[in-house]
Amino acid sequence: MIKNIINDTSKTIVGNISKIKITLAAIISEGSILIEDYPGSGKTTFAKAITQNLGLNFKRIQFTSDLLPSDILGFNMLSNEKMNFQKGPIFTNIVLADELNRGSPKSQSAFLEAMEEKKVSIDGESYNLPEPFFVIATQNPMDSSGTSSLPESQLDRFMISFSLSELSEEEKILMLKREVKFNGASHKIDWEEIKKRKSNIIVEDEIYKYVVDIENIIQSLENKIYISARCMKQIIDLAKGWAIINEKEYVTHQDIKETLPFILRHRIKFLRQENKVDYINKEVLEKININ
To answer: I need a surface site. Which of 1, 64, 81, 285 has the fewest CB within 10 A?
Structure first.
């Protein structure tokens, strides 16, 4: 099933196979995804291609400066002398928050409770979101006009982030030739089966110790990287999803190494994007001895 989803998505998206796989691993791990790149680089097409091949319900929210929280969450409306709740577009399985950092801080914060607790609160009432629920957000680089920074509290709720890869000359030609079509899912993901497989993934104590060692190394760095308890759990959860993508029944140190850069990328502020993976490898991973 996973292989079929990867193959179907690759029919729409040229290159970026590693990004397709890590995105599916994050979704399997019930984590949200942040895609950062310049306008016109294919962020929205990538997100749509992933979601249509999962066979889950999907809605897109275009963030603008005048977007209100009620436009996202919904609102109460008086009808027949009774208040009725009108659900917003966030009530779906996968929300594409397009150009998230073009919205106001108030509209951005409308996602905080949803991303963490899978529910929203309106006028003192709580409403559960559908299961599963994920956010795939795109954002323009911070030097783009009309953008505002995402707060730390929101960035920490994203499990992974990445930019779309540069294409080779051959891939660019293929991209120009290919006509993008969204025809719906040919393979609907069996969410109950995924949850069962994830619960059976084996994580030995040495893997948990490895994650704690990573945290200790990060805390000792001169340039601090904020790594929360939520982030540490995301490391384990994503590694489980990565194991499923690679058809394994257990998590290895290599799974942590391969997925960690995607988790730490949006938590590192003091480096250019292209330097972050090398920094994580040299300053964090290579300093830990694995027995």
So the answer is: 81
Distance CA 134, CA 118 (A): 9
Domain ranges of the chain: 1-186, 200-291
Burial group, residue 199, by CB count within 10 angstroms (0-12, 13-18, 19+): exposed
Per-residue confidence band for 247, with pLDDT thresholds at 50, 70 and 90 = very high
| Main-chain phi, psi angles of 279, to 5 degrees | -60, -45
Q: Could you tell me the pLDDT band of residue 181, with boundaries at 50, 70 and 90?
A: low
Q: How much is the pLDDT for 142?
A: 62
User: Residue 38: what pLDDT?
Assistant: 76
| pLDDT value for 257 | 95
Quickly name the fold that domain 1-186 has: Rossmann fold (3.40.50)
Q: Quick one: what percent of the chain has pLDDT higher than 70?
A: 94
